[in-house]
Specification:
alpha+beta; five-stranded antiparallel beta sheet; five-stranded mixed beta sheet; rod-shaped
Length: about 775
């Protein structure tokens, strides 16, 4: 029940809000429909009809019409009455073909052209079927309303009959509208226009154009508003709020036929006793005032109700039950806040388009064309408001649920920026900087182009120059920044290359860097310092190990020599006890093995540290391998190993220490002897590759080679983990160190159970003969 009650309250509040919105829209329509739209509110209390622009516009229109009437009266009247048979127009169609037209003739002729005089004396134009027929211009001999035309060239005396007809009807309409509304009809406006007669044929000195029945103008002045002007001083005497200054130009510029302007006076009875246009406008003005007040009251009530219901809906938004902590989110509330805004922007654009296509046409059915523009704008504003209202409530529900910030694109972007500063991620920084730079350039480009096409105002010229200057400075600053960072990166790369080449003491000047590059430069300096310290520690440790091995080996050598000598002396005693002889054999073997181990330790230590004195001579590498093969053939036969060698016939000279090179080969052959599978072959090859000679020895291992090639060259590492064979585990390590000391290369390759060693030395260059 609680859930339904809350939903019901939401529905009622939403309905009231829409009703209040409708009240606001209706009140705006009411206020706009009044002629005082846009003038504010002060006119409601401080202005009356006779003080309004509405009154003065009508008065000016009537005064101009009175002067027109004075020019046209003699053209359409005879002895003070409208004469429809009076000659108005005389046309010459050719020799002896002149024709006169009265007003009755013109009215009939006008109907053939589609011109019809209405009840309000306006002209209604209806194009008949033959209205598009071509007419030849005719010679105009006389116009009653313009008896003395000012023709500057002969062509102005000709006109088409259709145009002449419309011209006559227009002047007739102007005459009748004044004659029947102001002169013969009842009117609150009283006037008298006095002209001096310049025609000697007429006895009267003055001619009057008036609708006044009471000649006492002083009385008329006191009944309302008046204005008076005389030709003597051309000064306007008036009690009107807005002085009709246009009277001066009318009095001086209006051309009367055989008459001269003398005096004009006009009076408006502000009590409006007669029913005329002023009475109707005064009533309309007062009605407009009351409707404006009603519109303001309706708008105030609507706005107040809108605000109250909006606040109430905002309080209820997201709540469906008594648990105020639980916020209900709709499916579209779960997308990011920016995505929600973009979605409603698209929805709003679609609704506005639909409103233009459908809504505008519906408005045109019920609203006059004069009000279409503002009605269309109002419809679009209402659509935008409703879409923004839905979007706002969606964002409000997210805020209540704590999801407005979490999950938004902005939060993710700021999180990435934070990650950049905490993790020092250069890629994110470059991406954000590039996006901001491009966005600024696009904004400046669009603004500059917009101002470029609108440089009429000085403000736009200043803005254009400022934006263009800022754009240039921005791009130059960005270019300088990029070049500066590129140079700093080049220095960092050079420093890294120097350290990689072995110059670990190389340092960079940190003061030449900025930003992240300065941090990197400082790290590089610390890397060099730490590498130098680690290298020194390693050299010290290697030295200590070498000294330890040498000292221990030397300390073992003396008692070991004594043991070997005494064993030899005991054997010379020819002891007959076979058990004792067996003990002596074991003692002699183990002591010899220990002696070999100590010698290998010393040699391995010296070889790895480079503390060996080499005697470099020219050696025939092929011959040395031949000798090694001979030395080991018999030994290989003990394990049924067949030695297969492929050696070149030509000698190959290298520069090496003979004794150390022999030790390398000896260790390799001994390794093959110990670990090769019995009844298998051992392959020995020598090949020449340009300036290098390569020695290769290959054999099949008796045991699985479950060790990497790099580990085999480490000290005390052996291929047979079970250690069933004799050996120190130093042979290959010593061979590698001795090879490298003699500027050679040593490489072990393991392919399944196939064990291969490649030893390369530079071939001695012989001078060309």
């Amino acid at each position: 029940m609680n859930v339904n009650f809350i939903q019901l309250k939401k529905i009622i509040a939403a309905a009231l809000h829409l009703a209040a919105l409708g009240m606001v829209v209706v009140s705006i329509g009411i206020l706009y429909s009044t002629s005082n739209y846009g003038r504010g509110l002060t006119w409601i209390q401080s202005e009356t009809y006779v003080q309004s622009d509405l009154f003065y516009n009508q008065l000016q229109s009537d005064i101009r019409a009175i002067f027109d009437y004075a020019q046209l009266r003699d053209a359409f009247e005879s002895e003070g009455e409208l004469d429809m048979d009076k000659e108005i127009l005389s046309i010459n169609y050719g020799p002896n073909a002149a024709e006169s037209y009265s007003m009755s003739d013109i009215l009939k002729l006008g109907e053939t052209y589609g011109y019809f005089i209405q009840d309000d004396w306006s002209i209604n134009v209806i194009n008949p079927a033959d209205s598009d027929l071509q007419e030849e211009p005719v010679l105009v001999e006389y116009k009653a309303y313009d008896p003395d035309p000012d023709l500057k060239e002969p062509g102005q005396a000709y006109a088409k009959m259709k145009d002449l007809c419309y011209e006559v009807l227009t002047n007739f309409s102007r005459y009748c509208s004044v004659h029947y509304s102001l002169v013969t009809g009842s009117s609150n406006l009283t006037f008298q226009l006095t002209c001096r007669n310049d025609n000697e044929m007429i006895s009267a000195n003055e001619i009057y154009y008036t609708n006044a029945t009471d000649p006492s103008w002083e009385k008329l002045k006191h009944r309302g508003l008046y204005a008076e002007i005389s030709a003597d001083d051309n000064r306007i005497d008036s009690n009107m709020l807005k002085l009709p200054v246009y009277l001066q130009s009318l009095a001086s510029d209006t051309r009367f036929y055989e008459q001269t302007f003398q005096h004009f006076i006009i009076s408006v009875d502000t009590n409006f006793p007669n029913s005329d246009v002023y009475t109707r406008e005064a009533a309309s003005y007062n009605s407009m005032r009351s409707w404006t007040i009603r519109g303001l009251v309706i708008m105030s009530a609507g706005l107040l109700l809108c605000i109250l219901t909006l606040l109430y809906l905002a309080a209820l938004s997201g709540h469906d039950g008594p648990d105020r902590a639980h916020i209900r989110l709709y499916p579209y509330d779960r997308i990011s806040a920016e995505g929600c805004i973009l979605m409603f922007l698209v929805i709003g654009a679609f609704c506005c388009y639909a409103g233009q296509v459908v809504g505008f046409r519906l408005l045109h059915l019920v609203i006059s064309s004069a009000n279409w523009y503002y009605a269309e704008r109002l419809l679009l504003y209402v659509i935008c408001y409703l879409v923004c209202l839905l979007c706002g409530f969606s964002l409000l529900r997210r805020y209540k649920a704590g999801r407005l910030w979490n999950g938004s694109w902005t939060q993710k972007a700021l999180h990435d920026i934070h990650e950049y500063y905490t993790r020092e991620s250069t890629s994110n920084s470059a991406a954000y900087s590039y996006v901001i730079f491009v966005a600024l350039n696009i904004t400046l480009a669009c603004s500059t182009i917009y101002l470029l096409f609108d440089l009429d105002s000085s403000l736009h010229q200043i803005l254009f120059g400022g934006l263009l200057l800022f754009w240039i400075v921005l791009d130059l600053a960005a270019f300088r920044y990029v070049i500066k960072k590129a140079l700093q990166n080049d220095k960092i790369q050079q420093a890294i290359a120097n350290i990689a080449d072995g110059d670990i003491s190389y340092c960079v000047n940190v003061d030449e860097f900025s930003g992240r590059q300065k941090i990197t430069a400082d790290h590089i300096n610390h890397i060099g310092e730490n590498l130098d310290g680690a290298l020194q520690e390693k050299v010290k440790s290697e030295r200590f190990k070498a000294d330890l091995i040498t000292n221990v080996s030397h300390d073992l050598k003396t008692p070991l020599t004594s043991i070997i000598n005494y064993v030899d002396l005991i054997k010379r005693e020819h002891i007959q006890n076979e058990k004792v002889q067996g003990y002596l054999e074991v003692l002699e073997q183990k002591s010899q093995r220990l002696k070999t181990l100590t010698e290998d330790l010393v040699e391995a230590s010296k070889a790895s540290s480079g503390n060996l004195k080499l005697e470099i001579t020219d050696i025939d590498f092929v011959e040395l391998v031949h000798q090694t093969n001979g030395e080991f053939e018999e030994k290989f036969a003990q394990r049924h190993l067949e030695l297969v060698s492929r050696l070149p016939e030509q000698p190959i000279l290298i520069e090496a220490d003979g004794r150390r090179l022999w030790r390398v080969l000896e260790n390799l052959y001994n390794n093959a002897f110990k670990y090769a599978m019995e009844h298998s072959r051992i392959y020995v090859d020598i090949t020449r590759e340009e300036d290098m000679v390569q020695f290769t020895i290959k054999n099949i291992s008796e045991h699985p080679l479950n060790i990497s090639s790099d580990e085999l060259t480490e000290r005390f590492v052996r291929g047979d983990v079970s250690r069933t064979t004799e050996g120190s585990g130093l042979g290959l390590s010593i061979a590698e160190s001795l090879t490298q000391l003699q500027k050679g290369t040593f490489e072990i390759v393991i392919d399944g159970d196939l064990f291969k060693v490649y030893v390369k030395f530079p071939v001695k260059k012989t001078p060309d003969v």
